[in-house]
Amino acid sequence: MKKGLLTLVFGSAIVLAACGGGDSKSSNGEKEELSGEKLVQRSCVTCHGGQLQGASAPALNELGAKYSEDEILDIILNGKDRMPPGLLKGQEAEAAAEYLAGLK
Ligand code: HEC
User: Fold this and answer.
1) How confident is the model at residue 34 (pLDDT cuts 50, 70, 90)?
2) Cα(100)–Cα(83) distance, rounded to whole angstroms?
3) What Cα–Cα distance (Å) separates residue 56 from each residue in 21, 43, 45, 59?
4) Of 59, 38, 37, 39, whose CA–CA distance to 47 is shortest?
5) How far, in Å, is the centroid of ligand 1 from the Cα of 30?
6) Pair 87, 43: CB distance under 8 Å
7) Alpha-carbon gap, residue 70 to 57, rounded angstroms
8) What is the pLDDT of residues 53-99, one digit of tens each?
9) Whole-angstrom distance, CA of residue 56 vs CA of residue 25
10) Which residue pairs from 41-44 have beta carbons closer than 8 angstroms and sit at least 24 positions apart in sequence?
11) Residue owning the nearest CA to atom 40 of ligand 1
12) What Cα–Cα distance (Å) separates residue 46 from each residue in 12, 32, 40, 49, 56?
């Protein structure tokens, strides 16, 4: 009797573990950090405004109409007048430039 119950509990534990394994497949959230929109929200809105509508710094919400992706990347990496350089670097700067170049 007792043995039968143990087998039952053990058996369902294996089924549960298998289900858990399936779940972890969909939770690869780490790469999401490279989303340009999130990076801009994190690094740029304090000066450029929560909707990028402009605040102490000019609006960025139609930036793609003014600059190419390369020019935006250059401003992020090297700054521009009062705009500080190096707020984002490498792949993060590229992802942000790609996102901003799409705003028109
Ligand atoms: C500390 C405040 C501050 C932060 C943070 C900041 N900026 Fe700026 N940014 C400025 C200022 C000030 C200017 C205006 C520079 C000038 O005098 O031409 C500017 C200008 C710009 C311009 C040129 C706009 C134009 O119309 O010529 C771009 C592009 C830009 N910023 C992108 C970014 C991005 C992308 C981020 C986030 C990675 C960011 N900025 C974060 C202050 C900031």
Assistant:
1) confident
2) 16
3) 48, 14, 10, 9
4) 59
5) 27
6) yes
7) 20
8) 999 999 999 999 999 999 999 999 999 999 999 999 999 999 999 99
9) 43
10) 43/87, 43/88, 43/96, 44/87, 44/96
11) 44
12) 51, 21, 10, 6, 8
Q: Which two tokens stand for residue 7?
A: 């087998």
Kindly state the percentage of the chain with pLDDT values over 90.
Answer: 67
Contact status, residue 74 vs residue 15, Cβ threshold 8 Å: no
Contact call for residues 69 and 101 (beta carbons, < 8 A): yes
Banded pLDDT at 1 (limits 50, 70, 90): low
Distances (CA, A) of 61 to 45, 55, 68, 99: 11, 12, 14, 10
Which residue has its alpha carbon closest to ligand 1 atom 6?
Answer: 44
Residue minimizing CA distance to atom 25 of ligand 1: 58
